[in-house]
Structure prediction request, 613 residues.
Amino acid sequence: MIIYNERSHDFLNHVYENKIGYVLKENMLQKTNKVVSDREIRSWEHSLPEMARIIRDANLSSDADVLLEYKLPSTEKRIDFLIAGCDESGKENVLIIELKQWQKAELAEGDGVVSTFLGGRVRETVHPSYQATSYRRYLQHFNESLYHSTTIHMHSCDYLHNYIMGKEEPLMNERYRHYLAESPLYFRFDDRELTSKVKHHVSSGNGKDIAEKIETGKIRPSKKLVETVGTLLDGSDEFVLLDEQKVAYEKVIALYNALKQKTDTKQMILIKGGPGTGKSVIGLHVMRHMLEAGANMEYITPNQAFREVLRKKLIGSSCRTEVRDLFKGSASYVTTPENQFDVLLCDEAHRLKQFGHMQKKIEDENQATHIIRSANLSVFFVDDTQVVSKKDVGSYDMVKQEAEKAGADVHTVELESQFRCSGSGNYIAWIDKLLDFEKSDIGLKGDFDFQIVDSPHVLKEEIVDKRNGRLVAGYAWPWTKNRKNNELEKDVVIKDHQFAMPWNDPNRIDWAIHPECENQVGCIHTVQGLEMDYIGVIIGKDLGYDEETDSIIVRREEFYDRGARPRKPKKDERDPLYDLVRNTYKTLLTRGMKGCYVYCCDEGLQRYIKRHM
Prediction:
């Protein structure tokens, strides 16, 4: 969606008449029903006159087209400024110019990352050249008019019109060389060079047809991107389909094929399965097939940490921008038009929310509603026993009900085989008995390495130091958000053993696989959906055992996740926190592929587990 598309002389008039902020504000309201903030209007009114000066000095033909605030399809990202037209030889060009009001920046850790003053404080953000390059690549790989075109040539750059380049300028550091080569930077006194670049690409104007192709182009992944995903999946034995995984996969494919023949009825399939039943493996194979079939599709995960690790497991540390853009959060579809997508896959659907961060609640709608509405075929992978917060609404029954309300045909597939925990269905069943999900006499058998240790120090030594695993814990300790001397506060404290470690760094959403995070304790929101060879679980005092009643208990006063904690129970009502805490620990205890070691803060619970081993 393009908020503003006008000839270059009309753009100049809007700026010279001081109307540009007003015109953009009205266009935004009309096209998106969104009221923009005064801060954003001021940003336009500061930056766009700088571009008007560049356009004026380039002396372009009056029919070059200026496009402002181009919303990248299926994202909340917008390109600041595009200009479309032909050069002197008649070649069609589009130049993306990202505008920055920065005045200073510093180097930061990570590929393509810098730090600068944003939103009232210094933050880490992407390098301007990385941003402009990624936006250009996104268009080239998802807009059918561009990746099929042999005539339209895309270019990108950045204009930091308030920024005076220093002698040893951090933004020009060697580490950013390959991004700078693709999208050069222009600083405060580089206006002549930028003017020359604009004139070189679009001096002859005639940009209307080019702009129209961009705005009306169908959104679907390019053949090159499809081939990339296929190659990545082919290269890993981890993504082989077995038994009922194959059955579930074929069911989804059959529904899609039938849908292509008959488009008047939505289809929705619920794939139910516990921890380690291979839901994500099925999802990735479905994604590959749909891309190869030319479907417009995306892969949704509500959990940001799971989404990031899934990307990196699939595509490596380089995290190719074009592949990353296939993975989305569950709050991305509030305003998506009906049936814009052929297929949407929603992994970890039990973590769906009523509405997204900073979004207003819409009566009788939730994230499942939005996903089902946005696609002809929606696929949800769900496990009700992994609901760990009062905000989680994505139960099997709720998603099924939303599909029926939308008039969709509903299908269900259940997965049972265990591919985690050394393939031990016995271990999963034993955990269910231990946490009082099931009543049975089952004992712990098989070759899954489960141990109870008597000290958190021993837990760290066995799991982290010896086996390169990770420690996780229930939300039985508060989380200090403010750092001292840029160090994480050691919140996970067990005084009896003089043990203290920090929670995982909230800025490292790839905590589970990042080598610098081994001395941090992961929480449920960081680890859910992930797996590792060995996991060490610290069970806090939020979960305990009452030896008098011979029962598992939950202590509300020891649970510190305020956002996840449900209301207090009414008289004679079971505390709803009981299920959330048990679900949390079941999820944590089933993250290991080869083994799980446990330390319990509650001595009674420690004895209870040992007795049942």
Remarks:
- The first strand starts at residue 2 and ends at 7.
- The first helix runs from residue 8 to 16.
- Residues 573 and 597 are 34 Å apart (CA to CA).
